[in-house]
Design goal:
about 1150 residues; nine-stranded mixed sheet
Length: about 1150
């Protein structure tokens, strides 16, 4: 080992498959005639590497042994090819990987090593051999007991046996004179360890020689092929020693570069110039002298595959014709020009098995058999291609803008609900019933250039129950939220909690109450759970438990929704305790009070601990028990539920008496049951799926009796019998709904839906059940049989909810009378009311909002996520996901009248004389602290600048106007439930982004007031302000206070037009002027020029307002302006004779 020896090359050993994990090398050998290294792995694959100028490179790789034949144990190389040995086979191939022969035999058992020559007979061995080496005229065989036996190479008789190590032999090597071994020996208190000595045996005198000392632990050894008395010894840590056996004091030491690994194999080339090592990091290292790196003395040239000649480069540019590029010449007809009349649809999707057949199938060793349902004629074939085309022919709705453009009437269009009604029978009965019904499939929102507001959600829902949209992250929880909403007990507690003064930002119970109230007020219009899901996604436990789609993309949705249910119920109970620490009604509504008895199987010590739970997970019997029940029609749901509630587990845990881990048996004793029972179906096994496939297996009513620690559950006839008998205090529960997992096949990903009996939560007493399907924003009625029918192929339950039947129709709306409105009057800072002309908090009780009170509102937003576009091959664009906006500022202004009354001013007197404060002064002007990354502040349209929403840099933090999203949202929510009427411009999109639904009776939108449906164009606030109020707004950045004030004043002008009964006439004139100015404020108005009404209104009075511009639709009478109104503005009504075109000119 010369001084210039070093690591020449390092290469990673390839994995057994393209996407498999890498495995280490278990055997390798140097080629004896070419510059190749041959390696083998655990999967029977042989791989070779070529030593070239740039180091090792992959040469060939082939599968030499099958999976059942075992791993490669040894590789031998000869002139004609490579021989590899596995446990049950021997394989011979050429160096290019072509198979020459493959030998297997029934008598092959754990083959390990083969010497050159032919196998002529099978001889019994004296012991089990683990290693074999050829040493001169002997065969050196290592036994499993640590001995070495020398066999005669001709007669295979044991000539000499030598005990080398006390344990076993790890590696050995021999030449014609010496045999060197490395092995293991037992050590006290440390088990087996590598011996610090390499044992040496003289093959000529058949006597042991003094061992070679190796303190690092000798693990591998190789004799030098050219120096007869020299060997290389290596440890697992990578230490190498070149030792002269006859003079062990002559030692050369080297250290292999190993990083977080240890050595597995060692081999030396026949030339003695190269050393190969393999480690646990699945890498191969080649060491030697770079100047003399050869594997053999006279290497043959290695054969490489022929190089494919590169096609000649064509100097073609964009302005040259395509005809200048040559094409291949051909005389025969190309295969691609197959005539169309000879193209046929061959085969088709196989027909699916009827669920009746699978449900009634008797399984045997060869398959299964079932009675023929006789739904088709004998030998009748089903056209499965036509079936799939018929189901795929459904089209989505047109965009609202397209409908308005086409002039299609609302009743004349094609409605999804009508299609569903027509297809429901064909999808659930007959030959197509095994397919997923169309109403259960995935529904997607399509986006036009106008955004999600242009999507026709009403197309999918004509009920009075609102659905939830799907374009929000983690919207897989929508079915669970709908299920909780229609559970009266949870619904009442959530809304009562929301009406309190809770301002905790992570309170999911408040967000749930906000969502429930929005769904009820929407009355069938689509909603979105944006704020709830945002709060849910921001919780640290949501990510750690794998409840977020982005953190667990491959996790099945049924497991995610069950874990979410368990976490959500615990969080709701904890949130309720924050405001009611002494009496937690949520715990009483959800907790099953129980005691866990833990008994040690060794000492019989029993410990009793509380074991209350919010959710029960169904546990199904084992297959052996299920087969015994099958003879008696199988276990019922009530039996499964009873066994799951009183489940007994066998676990291993700590015993306080034994002071060690023992086998423990746990038994649960039920003390009381809550009014709401939430169950995880946990359908994972095939036997459990077959139970749910039985018709009417899930009961709509169950009866539960808890008596002295005993739990009983009844259903069906047993329940009716005990109710008539009246011997027990039985509590009847009814099924509220089910969250089901829908597997739509390979073409669509699975998703969740909920099937809910909405009659349970209706305020009117309805004896009949009303089951509805909630497939996100698709909502439709569903028959009882369909709702409670499950199919293992596509529909399985995930979460179930039962509620006491006595709580049916108990909808408690007293929370509306107990609203905690102190938030509206709270002063967050001493500096908050320093400028009463621009901001003034409401005064209690003088300014207490009452039903019908008018307030102005406007909001500003920032961009949190850009829209995602898909550009198709034809260049067209489609929106995959719209941009996401976040609320940045919301302003609510007094309506310019006495806020304690619901009526406006009937005269032209100054409203400030009657109001407690000046009109149009905001009492809410909150900036929202947004914790998400903001990608665009949209300053030109929002007026928000960077730093305004950061508590450290915001100028509004000291005045108490920088608040959390929940605080700002709750203020608006309180005003909504106090009956306030919101006045603004373009409020539909504002309320949608805020994620709140305001009934139409409480909204006055000036964009709809000043709108002619026949013209099809809505007017901007800026244009209306210039034309009607004679004021310029939005001259720089937008300001929500200015926009809200302008909207209120436009509404005031509209009231005057209504009193004069001239609304239609005024609208016609507005649109007439709008066409002349292209519905934009003219540049002359922005530059401060005046347009004078010639002979109609008279000369305008001068205005000191900087934004005063062109003429307005108002009479020439002027009055004293109120605060916020330009002095001298013509604020009267439109004169009898409308302003003519001369004024515009």
């Amino acid at each position: 080992m010369e001084t210039d020896w070093q690591e020449v090359s390092r290469i990673a050993f390839p994995p057994p498959a393209p996407h498999a994990q890498a495995t280490p090398v278990i055997v390798f050998a140097f080629d004896t005639s070419q510059e190749l290294i041959w390696t083998g792995n655990d999967y029977g694959r042989v791989t070779s590497f070529h030593n070239g100028p740039s180091g090792l490179s992959r040469y060939t790789s082939y599968r030499a042994h099958g999976t059942k034949e075992g791993a490669v144990k040894q590789i031998l190389v000869c002139d004609k090819g490579v021989l590899s040995v596995a446990s049950k086979s021997v394989h011979f191939a050429s160096r290019r990987g072509l198979v020459q022969w493959h030998l297997t035999h029934d008598d092959f058992r754990d083959l390990r090593y083969v010497e050159r020559g032919e196998i002529v007979e099978t001889l019994p061995a004296a012991e089990q051999y683990t290693l074999m080496k050829r040493g001169g005229q002997y065969i050196c065989a290592a036994t499993s007991s640590g001995s070495v036996q020398l066999l005669n190479s001709k007669t295979f008789v044991v000539l000499k046996s030598w005990k080398a190590h006390m344990g076993w032999i790890n590696d050995m090597d021999a030449n014609s004179s010496f045999l060197v071994t490395c092995g293991w020996s037992p050590r006290q208190q440390f088990g087996n360890m590598l011996d610090p000595l390499a044992k040496v045996f003289d093959l000529k005198t058949l006597m042991p020689l003094p061992p070679v000392s190796f303190h690092a632990g000798a693990a591998f050894v190789r004799m030098h092929p050219r120096m007869m008395t020299t060997c290389i010894i290596a440890s697992q840590s990578g230490q190498l020693q070149l030792v002269d056996i006859m003079n062990s004091t002559m030692v050369t030491v080297r250290q292999v570069n190993l990083v977080d690994s240890y050595l597995l194999l060692l081999d030396i080339a026949s030339s003695g110039e190269a050393l190969a090592l393999a480690d646990t990091n699945c890498t191969i290292q080649l060491c030697g002298s770079p100047a003399r790196m050869t594997f053999t003395g006279y290497s043959h040239q290695t054969e490489f595959p022929d190089q494919v000649p590169k096609p000649p480069s064509i100097g073609w540019r964009g302005n040259e014709p395509l005809s200048s590029i040559g094409m291949p010449y051909y005389r025969e007809t190309l295969l691609s020009s197959w005539p169309s009349h000879m193209i046929f649809d061959v085969g088709g999707p196989p027909p699916k098995i009827d669920p009746i057949v699978t449900n009634n199938m008797t399984r045997t060793d060869f398959g299964g058999y079932a009675p023929n349902p006789r739904k088709t004629r004998r030998n009748q074939a089903e056209d499965t291609r036509a079936t799939e085309k018929a189901l795929a022919a459904l089209e989505g709705p047109k965009f609202l803008s397209e409908k308005a453009k086409d002039g299609a009437s609302e009743d004349g269009g094609r409605r999804m609900s009508d299609i569903l009604d027509q297809l429901s029978n064909s999808s659930l009965d007959g030959a197509l019933k095994v397919d997923v019904p169309v109403m259960y499939r995935n529904v997607e929102i399509k986006y036009s250039k106008f955004g999600v507001e242009d999507f026709d959600f009403e197309y999918y829902n004509k009920t009075k129950y609102s659905g939830l949209e799907t374009h929000i992250a983690n919207s897989y929880a929508n079915p669970l939220l709908q299920l909780l909403r229609f559970t009266p007990w949870i619904r009442n507690l959530a809304l009562h909690h929301t009406a309190t003064s809770c301002l905790f930002e992570t309170c999911l119970l408040c967000e749930l109450g906000f969502l429930f109230d929005m769904l009820e007020k929407a009355n069938g219009q689509n909603c979105q759970a944006t704020n709830f899901l945002k709060t849910f996604s921001g919780l640290s436990h949501s990510a750690s438990l794998g409840l977020l789609e982005e953190s667990s993309p491959a996790r099945p949705l049924t497991l995610m929704i069950q874990s979410t249910t368990r976490f959500l119920l615990e969080k709701l109970a904890a949130d309720f305790r924050q405001m009611s620490p002494h009496v937690s009604h949520m715990d009483q509504a959800l907790t099953t009070v129980a005691m866990n008895s833990i008994r040690c199987a060794h000492c019989a010590n029993e410990t009793v601990r509380p074991g209350g739970t919010y959710i029960h997970e169904l546990v199904y019997p084992q297959r052996s028990v299920l087969k015994s029940h099958t003879r008696m029609h199988g276990p019922t749901f009530s039996q499964i539920f009873k066994a799951s509630v009183e489940r007994q587990d066998q676990t291993r845990g700590w015993c306080d008496r034994c002071k060690r881990y023992q086998q423990l048996s746990t038994r649960k004793t039920i003390q009381s049951i809550p009014p709401v029972l939430v169950l995880n179906a946990a359908v994972h096994s095939a036997d459990a799926k077959q139970l749910w496939a039985k018709p009417r297996w899930l009961p709509q009513e169950i009866g539960i009796v808890v008596d002295q620690g005993q739990f009983y559950c009844y259903e069906g006839q047993d329940l009716n019998f005990h109710l008539r008998r009246g011997a027990f205090n039985i509590v009847v529960y009814e099924l509220v709904g089910v969250v089901a997992d829908i597997s739509a096949g390979e073409s669509q990903k699975s998703h969740l839906v909920s099937l809910i009996n909405v009659a349970v939560s209706s305020k009117e007493k309805q004896p009949e059940n009303q089951w509805h399907l909630f497939n996100d924003f698709l909502v439709r009625k569903a028959p009882d049989e369909e709702a409670l029918r499950f199919d293992p192929t596509w529909k399985l339950p995930s979460v179930l909810t039962y509620q006491v039947k006595s709580a049916r129709h108990r909808i408690d709306d007293t929370w509306k009378d107990n609203l905690d409105t102190t938030l509206l009057y709270r002063k967050w800072s001493l500096q908050q009311d320093d400028d009463p002309a621009h901001f003034q908090t409401l005064a209690y009780p003088a300014e207490k909002p009452a039903p019908g009170t008018r307030v102005g509102i406007d909001a500003e937003f920032v961009a949190l996520q850009q829209e995602e576009l898909e550009i198709k091959a034809d260049g067209s664009r489609s929106v995959v996901r719209p941009s996401r906006l976040g609320l940045a500022r919301v302003s609510v202004l007094r309506g310019g009248l006495d806020i304690t009354t619901a009526e406006g001013f009937e005269d032209d007197s100054d409203p400030g004389e009657q109001a407690v404060h000046d009109p149009y002064v905001p009492f809410i002007d909150d900036y929202i602290h947004i914790q998400e990354p903001i990608i665009d502040y949209l300053t030109l349209y929002s007026g928000i600048s960077p730093g305004d929403l950061n508590p450290k840099t915001s100028p509004y933090a000291s005045t108490g106007r920088l608040v959390s999203l929940k605080t700002a949202y709750k203020k608006i929510w309180l005003l909504l439930n106090l009956g306030v009427v919101f006045v603004g411009h373009g409020l539909l999109k504002d309320f949608r982004t805020i994620n709140i639904h305001i009934p139409k009776a409480q909204v006055v939108d000036t964009v709809d007031l000043y709108y002619l449906k026949s013209r099809g164009r809505k007017l901007s606030l800026r244009f209306l302000s210039w034309l009607i109020l004679d004021e310029m707004v939005q001259t720089a950045n937008h300001d929500s206070v200015e926009d809200a004030r302008t909207a209120i004043r436009l509404w005031r002008e509209w009231q005057k037009f209504e009193r004069e009964e001239r609304c239609e006439e005024v609208l016609q004139e507005i649109y007439k002027r709008g066409r002349d100015y292209n519905f934009r404020v003219p540049a002359s108005a922005m530059e401060g020029s005046r347009l004078v009404n010639e002979g109609q209104i008279g000369e305008r009075s001068t205005s000191t307002h900087t934004g005063h511009g062109s003429s307005s639709i108002a009479d020439s009478e002027t009055r004293e302006s109120s605060p916020g109104t330009p002095k001298g503005r013509a604020a009267g009504l439109v004169p009898a004779k409308l302003v003519g075109e001369a004024e515009l000119r």
